[in-house]
Design goal:
One of its GO terms (molecular function) is RNA-directed DNA polymerase activity. By secondary structure, this protein is mostly helical. The protein contains 5 helices and 2 strands; from the N terminus they run H-H-E-E-H-H-H. About 55% of the residues lie in helices and about 5% in strands. A two-stranded antiparallel sheet has the order 1-2. Helix 1 runs antiparallel to helix 2. It starts with a helix and ends with a helix.
């Protein structure tokens, strides 16, 4: 009797192994066919990723203000809506102070400290060390333009 159970278990394990191998083969074959079809249709990798992904990414649960976990779709939408309303309605305290805001016009500083003069060789050295083929800053001036002005 026990021998029969062991033999049955081994047979079940063998069948499960075969089934898993066949499932892997089928999935691999499906993915290969999807890739080939996408390439033949001149579509890009984004289309391929969308075809092979397993469903859309969705938020299934969130915590509300009280710390309770919410799974109801309408309540989830309400929580997200309130979050973004609060996010866009809030003002950063740092932006109220112009010295911390990079977009604010520069303030006049009456500093009694005298800075040393910048030598032309220092400017030339700094320009030589700068990388070329980079996008310009807010002023639209490129490194190449500065180098042409120095030469």
């Amino acid at each position: 009797m026990i021998y029969q159970k062991v033999r049955d278990k081994k047979e079940i394990d063998r069948i499960n192994k075969e089934i898993n191998k066949e499932i892997k083969k089928d999935i691999r074959k499906y993915n290969s066919n999807t890739i080939i079809d996408t390439i033949k249709a001149y579509q890009g990798p984004k289309v391929l990723r969308r075809k092979t992904s397993s469903g859309a990414k969705q938020i299934m649960k969130l915590k509300d203000d009280n710390g309770n976990i919410v799974t109801d779709r309408n309540k989830l939408l309400y929580i997200v809506e309130k979050f973004y309303e609060a996010l866009y309605a809030s003002r950063s305290l740092e932006s109220n102070f112009p010295e911390n805001d990079a977009r604010a016009p520069p303030l006049k500083h009456y500093n009694t400290e005298i800075l040393p003069r910048i030598l032309p060789c220092e400017v030339t050295k700094a320009l030589c060390e700068m990388k070329t083929d980079k996008s310009p800053g807010d002023d639209g001036m490129t490194v190449e333009l500065f180098r042409a002005g120095v030469s």
